[in-house]
Amino acid sequence: MANVKVVLPGDIVDTQSDGEAVLRLGPGLMQHNDDIQATTGGVLHASSDTNQWWVGSNRRRYVAAEGEPVVGVVVGRHGEGYRVDIGSAHDALLPLLAFEGATKRNKPNLAIGAAVYARVAVANSMMDPEIECVNAHTGKSEGFGELHAGFVFRCSLGLARRLLSASAPVLAALGAELAYEAAVGVNGRVWVKAGSPEKTILVVNAIRNSEHLDSRQCKQMVKELLDRQSL
Question: Which of 13, 44, 129, 170 supports an S-S bond with 92, CB 3.0-4.6 Å?
Fold first, then answer.
């Protein structure tokens, strides 16, 4: 979308769909008969790569939407899987077989408190969300699964979505200076792992500080953090 468009609850959204691509609705949008309707106020966004539309706002609580990546924490286990806190109104269900290579005899054994990177598989108002750590079509993890070691922290939902864009300036600025790993969930949780606790803290601080900075300011901020810690 070339122009910024603000929508209010009840507004009809023109998705400009050609009818061939599958339209994916994210947070803040719902289908009502043949129309797409906004359910919350905010800025309308669209992704040409996934044909997904959503409304961005400063909402504090994450609302699960199918296909979105999330970082969650295991809070319980039941007979067929795990309960995972993803920051939404209800815990998500993570089936034991929703992992690459998982079988009835070979199942993952996640501890309470373990962090996982997953994709929302089912999300609707009638049932608890369900997440998966595998692509159901290919059987591959594609980067999803348990997150070992590292550190999980929270950020705003708006910053999380910006970090997932290909042009996230703070991640590029950090990558140019040091080696690290990161997994970003649209639920406002980020997992990072660097070579040492000091570097991990630097990455966390840089990401948190970047929310209202442009590309040039991000580069300068990262440089100042590196100089301050002499890394």
Answer: 129
Structure tokens belonging to residue 118: 């997953």
Q: Give me 230's structure tokens.
A: 């002499």
Q: What sign does the CA torsion over 204, 121, 47, 158 have?
A: negative
User: What sign results for the dihedral spanned by CA atoms 180, 88, 58, 34?
Assistant: positive
Q: At 111, which amino acid appears?
A: A
Alpha-carbon 58 to chain mean position? 15
By the 8 A CB rule, do 211 and 203 touch? no
Whether residue 71 contacts residue 187, with contact meaning beta carbons closer than 8 Å, is answered with yes
The C-alpha R_g of the chain, in whole angstroms, comes to: 19
Taking the CA atoms of residue 213, residue 216, residue 222 and residue 225 in that order, the dihedral angle to the nearest 10 degrees is -80
Q: Is the dihedral of CA 153, 70, 225, 200 positive or negative?
A: positive
Rounded to whole angstroms, the Cα distance separating 100 from 145 reads: 8
The pLDDT tens digits for 40-91 are 888 888 877 667 787 877 677 888 888 899 999 999 998 889 999 999 999 9
Tell me the torsion sign for CA atoms 120, 121, 126, 127.
negative
Sign of the C-alpha dihedral, residues 163, 59, 49, 191? positive
pLDDT digits (tens, 9 = 90+) for 133-154: 998 788 899 899 999 999 999 9
Q: How far are the Cα atoms of 11, 51, 66, 225 from residue 23, in angstroms, in the given order?
A: 18, 6, 12, 42
Asked whether the beta carbons of 189 and 70 are under 8 A apart, the reply is yes
The span from the CA of 60 to the CA of 36, in Å, is 24
